[in-house]
Design a protein that fits this description.
Layout lengths: L1 E8 L5 H14 L5 E6 L6 H10 L2 E4 L9 H8 L19 E7 L3 E3 L5 H6 L9 E3 L13 E4 L3 H10 L11 H11 L6 E3 L15 H7 L5 E3 L15 H13 L2 H9 L18 E2 L6 E2 L27 H45 L11 H16 L7
Parallel strand pairs: 1-2, 1-4, 2-3, 6-8
Antiparallel strand pairs: 4-7, 5-9, 10-11
Helix pairs in contact: 1-2, 1-8
The structure holds uridine-5'-diphosphate and manganese (II) ion (MN).
The site of manganese (II) ion has 5 residues, from loops.
Protein name: Glycogenin glucosyltransferase
Pfam family, one: Glyco_transf_8
InterPro entries: Glyco_trans_8 (IPR002495), GNT1/Glycosyltrans_8 (IPR050587), Nucleotide-diphossugar_trans (IPR029044)
Length: 397
């Protein structure tokens, strides 16, 4: 029966990766197996589909049966909302036209021919409902879902589809969390056949076990560019793995084709306007000097205090000088506090006094007691106040 490598492409943003992978398998490693791709046809342009059809043997459209996980989950758990598309890997178990399939993420680059994997791990060596995959470098008790060897079958396909409807079944919100729950954790690891790490090496800037890398570098079978930044997002001259990917990409396409493929990427439909943070430094176009943009911006709040208003640090020659500065600072703060209290006092007292006077006039409350305050007499007066307030106002002519 037919065997195939297969990748997934749900939108233009992974087009360069998918095409490079397809070319690498076919033209570079001259695989004897089919090279297939699952695509969401509705999210791809006609020219992209033409390019895909020129590289891949089998192009399978899944636009009528897309499965998505919650982008909120992939965002909050992984910081990668775009990975909500990766649940579509489930459709690979439905491809029973193939006896064994090796699924590869479109951000992978085979360094050696992977054809021997079909004989070594595929076919009858994999019982129904199990898979083969390499451990994940971030958590090696989990497999990385960028390379999976599997035998498609309907029973597993239906079970997986059902399994994916419950958000609790993916610990990272994406396919790797889901597939590990299903093939690894649910069966205590029994349904995960562990492949060597060499089949899914994930070098990133933040993780690199250099001595081990140097020891095994000649045996690496496949590189996987995990994370949000992919090689096609920009040409790098400092990352040797990205350079390797670019060499492969440029080997099979002309400059114009490359521009068009990358133009079809994420940026194609986005109109970028320069976003500016008002607190950022600005470069004066004429002098080339850095300008302090903060200086031109009025405070948003009256009490706003900006760092640039803090006096520069100074050195003191003696302890006496420090004491003097502290004393001055204390005096200036207490003076301003006093002023604030006074103005508050004036404001409220003035108002109260004025109101009291007008009440006295209005309701004819005699105040012959002078400034002396007699609580009993006052209470007597206050108790009579409501009737005075309620009495009809006398019309003044
Ligand atoms: N993918 C896709 N469109 C998307 C996101 C992902 O087609 O918007 C496919 C693509 O094949 C990609 C795979 O799903 O390689 C898994 O995503 P990614 O490789 O970005 O995950 P990572 O390896 O970084 O965890
Ligand atoms: Mn990947």
């Amino acid at each position: 029966m037919t065997t195939a490598f297969i990748t997934l492409l749900t939108n233009e943003s992974y087009l360069a990766g998918a095409l490079t992978l397809g070319n690498s398998l076919k033209k570079n490693h001259k695989t004897t197996h089919k090279v297939a791709i699952l695509i969401d046809k509705q999210s791809l342009s006609k020219s992209s589909i033409d390019l895909i059809s020129s590289v891949f043997d089998d192009v399978i459209d899944i636009s009528d049966r897309l499965i998505k996980s919650s982008p909120i989950d992939t965002l909050t758990k992984l910081g990668r909302p775009e990975l909500s598309h990766t649940f579509n890997k489930i459709h690979i178990w439905d491809l029973i036209q193939y006896s064994t399939v090796i699924y590869l993420d479109s951000d992978t680059l085979p360094i050696k021919s992977l054809d021997h994997l079909f004989d070594k791990y595929g076919g009858t060596k994999l019982k129904q409902g199990s898979i083969a995959a390499s451990p994940d470098s971030g958590w090696p008790d989990i497999f990385n879902s960028g390379l999976i060897i599997l035998n498609p079958n309907h029973e597993t396909y239906e079970e997986l589809k059902e399994f994916s409807t419950n958000p609790i079944n993916t610990f990272d919100g994406a396919d790797q969390g889901l597939l590990n729950e299903y093939f690894n954790l649910k069966s205590n690891g029994k349904n995960w056949h562990r492949l060597p790490f060499l089949y899914n090496v994930t070098p990133t800037d933040s993780y690199q076990y250099t001595p081990a890398y140097d020891r095994f570098v000649d045996q690496i079978q496949l590189i996987h560019f995990i994370g949000g930044i992919k090689p096609w997002h920009g040409k790098s001259h400092s990352n040797k793995h990205h350079e390797l990917w670019w060499k492969e990409f440029e080997k099979h396409f002309t400059k114009e084709e490359i521009n068009s493929i990358l133009g079809h990427g994420e940026g194609k439909n986005l109109k970028f306007t320069k976003t500016e943070n008002v607190w950022d430094e600005e470069i004066n176009e004429e002098s080339g000097e850095i300008e302090d943009s903060k200086a031109n911006i009025p405070p948003v709040f009256p009490w706003e205090h900006r760092d640039d208003q803090i006096p520069a640090s100074r050195t003191f020659k003696s302890f006496k000088e420090i004491e003097q500065v502290v004393e001055d600072e204390f005096n200036s703060i207490s003076t301003s506090i006093k002023k604030n209290i006074e103005s508050l006092g004036k404001l409220s007292l003035g108002k109260i006094v004025k109101d009291q006077e007008s009440l006295k006039d209005k309701y004819n409350i005699d105040s012959n007691e002078g400034d002396q305050w007699d609580p009993i007499a006052s209470f007597d007066k206050v108790s009579k106040l409501p009737s005075k307030f309620l009495s009809k106002e006398e019309k003044k002519d």
